[in-house]
């Protein structure tokens, strides 16, 4: 299990509450799904301090807990293929749900990726869906498919504690709109996934459920705030997971764990009805809900299915914009901008190498690549505005921590800031302004930055932009830092897709590089083998175009 000791013992009350919750969670994993001692004895503990490459160790197979059929179901099919086999009756929802539940239970024992589990209810739901299928009454396009979902979404009868001890003991009495929608489409929900205390760091670590570990290498972070989803999906304990993203919280776990991740334009996928840490109604930057998957097609299946179901009928915060079927271009070649690194946020060598390789591959098949300089992209300017909006009001989140007496986890106590915090070149000094004038001033600056990007799209005639996913890959715990290359797209409210591609290599990226103090350092030995990726984004509400271009990029990168 991940490390959960964050310092000296606090008052016993919160620790007693946590102990009861952990004991309850432990009993919900069937005894016959517990890892044998032989497997645990083969690992180096504590897991978060030693390099255990869980995926490479092939523990689900070696454990003997999954049958050959269950290994096949969880390892060898894309989501569209699973849905086709569920539709034909070749697979039952019961066997698919059982297989992914067992694998999720294994993932939890190794990576601390789960919060709430309700395997029994999921299996009953799967049996009901199989009966509906047998009667010729499928519920919808996701009929029979298990889907995991981030802890903040509310599911009746479960808790949505989002990493706060003070939130424990409060069970949800209604489902979040997206939960209702997924159920109406025929999905099976079976687990909720781990997150950071406050939901505002790239390390999914809290005092209740512990630290989510990266299944590629347990000394590296799994990302946040949807880190449980990233780890679970990468371990193939879920065919499709749902996270949320206000500064990169879908994309950072995808980056760290080597999965696909898609952040839609805010409010196209319903986000309402969640447990949130901030002041109710305070949304200086609107968060998005989006999928993490192991196959690109699953992103399209999820987003199209959800939007086609008219989510605005269930969630008043969702925009009522139908899914658009795009006509094929007469000229299939694309004009793609390539965002260069910002000097304040230099790229780790493998990230720089992968971005250059991706651009070269796209150009080789005839796409037109248009360099976008750091001065044009204004990533560092956007960070200043985004950070100041995020910290305009933080008292509510900290108040939830103080309410129980629990300590801050290391990544929250560290409170990562932009690289030039305290020495801004774009945001003026706000300290003498009242709250309203601060917010108004930042809104004006935000509009200026949005206008800058409007001109880029118009003048350069771009179909999309290829960009770094982050300044680094997964890194040692509590070192990810401020996420410039994801947060800037939240401020602009652009859809963005992370595409896994390549790995860090100490043979190819040989030199240790000294990075700025606010950024994770590059150590080729420690980061060797970490997943790499690229990011594709388009203008706001061009989600369909974003996925279409991302598919082209993904297919190109898969070619040898």
From TrEMBL:
Coiled coil location: none
Pfam families to which the protein is assigned, alphabetical: Amidase (PF01425)
Keywords from the UniProt entry: Hydrolase
Binding-site residues for substrate, renumbered to this chain: 199, 225, 246-249
All copies of domain Amidase, residue ranges: 95-547
InterPro entries in UniProt: Amidase_CS (IPR020556), Amidase_dom (IPR023631), AS_sf (IPR036928)
Listed GO MF terms: amidase activity
The keyword Hydrolase belongs to this UniProt entry's keyword annotation: yes
Record PROSITE patterns: AMIDASES
Catalytic activity: a monocarboxylic acid amide + H2O = a monocarboxylate + NH4(+)
E.C. number(s) listed in UniProt: 3.5.1.4
Active site: 150 (charge relay system), 225 (charge relay system), 249 (acyl-ester intermediate)
Family affiliation: Belongs to the amidase family.
Protein name as catalogued: amidase
Source organism: Exophiala viscosa
Lineage: Eukaryota, Fungi, Dikarya, Ascomycota, Pezizomycotina
